[in-house]
Amino acid sequence: MKDEEKEERLVSLLAARRSEAFWAAQRARITAGALQKSGPARAWLLAPAAAAAALLIVLLAKPRLPVPAPETVVSTAFLEHLDLLDDMDVLEAVSEEEL
Amino acid sequence: MGVSILVETMTRTEKPAESPAGQEEDVLNRLVAEHQRQVYSLALRLTGNAAAADDITQETFISAWRHLKGFRGESSLKTWLLRIAANKVRSYWRWKKLRSWVGLGTRDEDGEGAALEDLLPDDPAGRPEQAALAADLERRVQKAINLLPTRQREVAVLRAQGLALAEIGAALGMAEGTVKAHWFEARRKLEVSLGEYL
Asked: Nearest by CB to B44, which of A7, A16, A35?
């Protein structure tokens, strides 16, 4: 067999063999997909408005927590740091006024 | 070359559809019909996975259709489509590597191999022996291709779609001499693996 014929035969072996029905179904899927995706091509114009609306919804939906009084904040902070104190004598050394 | 030029070129010899949308659909249909076998063959041979090849073929045409304005006509439409498909195959392998890296690599083995009914040109129900032979050939060919190193595989598969060595070089970003060397080596190995069919 000639070299070119051999190459031709090899090349034909590498091709995918599928039924005509397979190609037709694939063609239909591709055409539908391409036309569907290319249809709303200008949808990106709505993207900034959609992003702003989403942000607004998130901000409005966020539950508003009651703002604690300043003295409550101080005592909470103090109590949260209590566990850092190894020596309880330190606590005893703090006068009531300072607490 | 944009859609309008392509529409004009492809409809020159035939009766155009009534509306521009219908005309575009007609052009797309013919574009797919003309090149789908080559794009699918390339994807199938480079992935060894029928489901992935189908997805890659679909994505290739959709991308090409959406970016048709960017096609400058420097290469043939076929070379351009095959280059897009080859890039999508490379992305597929990167994605697959990433999946296996995070421990999800075994999920998509289901698309490997082809359904018997897909392997014959017409109804295989009456010819089960031929279907079995075709399936066996398909497996042998795919196995032989899988044994090639990546670059040789890419070159061999593009060569099998009828691209010239220079076109393959342009599609894969390789010098023509390198393509020639890869093709020479790939061909030698494929002839050894598939000798009985040649």
From this structure: A16
Closest residue, chain A, to B134 (C-alpha): A17
Would the pTM of this model clear 0.80, i.e. be above it? no
Alpha-carbon span A68 to B125, nearest angstrom: 78
Residues of B within 8 A of A15 (CB-CB) are 37, 41, 160
Residue from B114, B96, B115 nearest B104 by CA: B96
Amino acid letter, residue A84: L
Nearest-angstrom CA–CA distance, B85 and B91: 10
Residues of chain A in contact with residue B17, where contact means CB-CB under 8 angstroms, are none
Q: Name which of B40, B118, B190 is nearest A10 (Cβ-Cβ).
A: B190
* Amino acid at residue number A5: E
- What ipTM did this prediction achieve? 0.77
Pairwise CB contact (< 8 Å): B162 & A13: no
Give the number of C-alpha atoms closer than 13 A to the C-alpha of residue A86, restricted to the C-beta side: 0
CB pairs under 8 A between A and B: 96
- The C-alpha atoms of residue B27 and residue B81 are separated, in whole angstroms, by 15
For residue B30, give Cα distances in angstroms to A38, B33, B85, B157, B180.
17, 5, 18, 23, 32
- From residue B89, how far is each of B28, B63, B69, B136 by CA, in Å? 22, 14, 23, 24
Express each pLDDT in B12-67 by its tens digit. Answer: 444 444 566 777 888 889 999 999 999 999 999 999 999 999 999 999 999 999 88
CA distance B59 to B81: 11
The predicted-structure confidence for A32-78, as pLDDT tens digits, reads as follows 988 875 544 445 556 667 788 888 888 888 766 667 676 666 666 66
CB B160 to CB A15 under 8 A?
A: yes
